[in-house]
Amino acid sequence: MPSVEKIIDKMKRQPNGIRLEEADKVLRAYGYEAVRQKGSHKQYLNKETGDLTTIKQESPLKKAYVVDILNRIGE
Question: Residues 12-41: what's their mean pLDDT?
Fold first, then answer.
């Protein structure tokens, strides 16, 4: 699997082609951990900041989820 930096570059260039596994790797690298899964949604919590985000489990992810992840990690 590509490095986190390469995945972030791909997220910026092609936000419609990101797989759930790639988004999961980026979120974990930035301190988020999966805290809950119910149905088709997965919640990630950053314990340092208390930030909670929900992502629908689908591949590829919708652009809105990718843009939200980029905003949350400061990219």
Answer: 94
